[in-house]
C-alpha cells in the first residue's frame, strides 16, 4: 500500500516536525488539524488544513474538527471498486496514514486541584474515533499513536515505499491498546469522582505497560514479565531504580516488594531480610550497620541468598557488613558513594534505590489472581497503636515492652499465616510462618530462638483458639504476648497468662496473610 495522504493530529508534538517533513519529502500529502497544522506550517512543512478537506470549520472550541464523512470516509474505505467509486462520487480522498495522539487526559487529572470540567474537556473524542477507524482498516491504513514509532515508520516508507502488512497489524494492535488504556484512565477517574478512592467498582479496568520481560517466572519453565502501573507514584519496588547487578528475577521482585513494604512501616532505623517472601530477620538499631547485623543474627542460615531492605541510606559501614555474605538484592532509599563502591564489587548483587520512603505510594489496593477471577482488597495498612492496646492480664507490660510488642506485631503482619513472631531488644529472634496450625508455627519460632526465647515477646497474627499456645509460651520463657483477641475461649488464655505471670495485650486487629 502506497502512502499518498496522511492525516496528522497530535497533542504531543514530540518529533512531529521531523516526521512530517520526512513524509512530505517522500511526496506524502499532509492534512492536519489546527495546532498541528500551525506547528507544521511554521516549520515550513507543506500542509492542508482539515477545514479545507471537510469544507467545514472546526467548531465548538475544537470539540468537532475531524468528525466528518470526508475524513472518516477517507480512513474507513476498503480499496475495493465499490468503496472507491463511492469516495469518488462524494469527492473524498483516501487517507493512507493516520498519525494521532490524544488529549493529555492522564496529565490533566494528575494536576493538583483539577476540576471535573477541566478533566471532561480533556476527554478526546475525535482522536480516538480516527484511531479506531484507521486501526480497523489496517489492511489499507497505517495508524501511528506513539511518537516512538515515527522513526521506524518513516524508515520503512523510505526503504520499502510502503508499510508491510505485519507492521500495519502491529500498529493497529498498539492503537487499540492506546484507546483502551485511555478509556481505562477516564473510567477510573470518574469512578474516583463518583464514589471515592477506595470504593470497589462494578467493573475493574486495569491498564498496565510491560516494564520488562523476565527470564522466567517462579520456576524456569514458567514464562513471566513485569508490568508497571504508571499511575502509581512514590517509592515502591516498581518505581525503584536498579543501580547495579544482574537482571531482577520474578522472585527477586516479589521478595524485594515484601522487604520494602515491611521496612517502611518502621520509623526507627531498621533492616529487613526476606527469604521466600517471609521475613527471616528484622531489627532496629542505633545505626544501620547495627540493625543489619541484628537482623542477620536472627537467622543467618536463612539470610544467605536473601533480599535486604533498609529504611535509611546505606552507608559504608553497613555496606561492609552486607558484603560479607551472599545476598540476592538490596533495596534502600539510597546508597552513599562509598557504600556503592563496596557493594558494586559484587558483580551480580542487585542494588535498588527507591528514594525517600517517608513519601507514601498512591497504591492502596491489592490484587491476586485465582483461576477465573481476581480478588481485590485494600492493603493491610493498619497497625495498632499504643493507646488502642487492651491489657487483659494481671501482669501489666512496661512502656518498653509495649513498644517491643508493636514492633513484633508489625512484623507478624508481613509473615504468612499462621504467623508467630518472637522479638527481643528490637530484634526478631524467632519466626514461625505458614503452618496450618498456630502451635506448629510457635514451635518453629521457639526452635529458632533457642535460649533467646527467654524474656522475649510473642506476637500472633490471629487469636488463640485454645490456651495451649500460652502454656507452650510459658515453658519457653516468653514474658509477654500480643495478639488480636476475640476467641470465645479468650478467658482461658487470659487465665493461663495469669497463672504463668505473663502479660498479654489485645489489639482487636487480625492480620491474616494467606
Ligand atoms: N474533535 C475532533 O474532531 C478532534 N479531532 C482530533 N482531535 C484531537 O485534537 C488534537 C490535536 O489538535 P491540534 O492539532 O489542534 O493541536 C489531537 O489530540 C486529536 O486527537 C479532536 N479533538 C477532540 O475530540
Automatic annotation (TrEMBL):
<dbReference type="GO" id="GO:0006189">
    <property type="term" value="P:'de novo' IMP biosynthetic process"/>
</dbReference>
<dbReference type="InterPro" id="IPR016193">
    <property type="entry name" value="Cytidine_deaminase-like"/>
</dbReference>
<comment type="pathway">
    <text>Purine metabolism; IMP biosynthesis via de novo pathway; IMP from 5-formamido-1-(5-phospho-D-ribosyl)imidazole-4-carboxamide: step 1/1.</text>
</comment>
<dbReference type="InterPro" id="IPR002695">
    <property type="entry name" value="PurH-like"/>
</dbReference>
<dbReference type="InterPro" id="IPR011607">
    <property type="entry name" value="MGS-like_dom"/>
</dbReference>
<keyword id="KW-0808">Transferase</keyword>
<keyword id="KW-0511">Multifunctional enzyme</keyword>
<keyword id="KW-0658">Purine biosynthesis</keyword>
<protein>
    <recommendedName>
        <fullName>Bifunctional purine biosynthesis protein PurH</fullName>
        <ecNumber>2.1.2.3</ecNumber>
        <ecNumber>3.5.4.10</ecNumber>
    </recommendedName>
</protein>
<keyword id="KW-0378">Hydrolase</keyword>
<comment type="similarity">
    <text>Belongs to the PurH family.</text>
</comment>
<dbReference type="Pfam" id="PF02142">
    <property type="entry name" value="MGS"/>
</dbReference>
<comment type="pathway">
    <text>Purine metabolism; IMP biosynthesis via de novo pathway; 5-formamido-1-(5-phospho-D-ribosyl)imidazole-4-carboxamide from 5-amino-1-(5-phospho-D-ribosyl)imidazole-4-carboxamide (10-formyl THF route): step 1/1.</text>
</comment>
<feature type="domain" description="MGS-like">
    <location>
        <begin position="1"/>
        <end position="145"/>
    </location>
</feature>
<dbReference type="GO" id="GO:0004643">
    <property type="term" value="F:phosphoribosylaminoimidazolecarboxamide formyltransferase activity"/>
</dbReference>
<dbReference type="Pfam" id="PF01808">
    <property type="entry name" value="AICARFT_IMPCHas"/>
</dbReference>
<dbReference type="InterPro" id="IPR024051">
    <property type="entry name" value="AICAR_Tfase_dup_dom_sf"/>
</dbReference>
<dbReference type="InterPro" id="IPR036914">
    <property type="entry name" value="MGS-like_dom_sf"/>
</dbReference>
<dbReference type="GO" id="GO:0003937">
    <property type="term" value="F:IMP cyclohydrolase activity"/>
</dbReference>
<dbReference type="GO" id="GO:0005829">
    <property type="term" value="C:cytosol"/>
</dbReference>
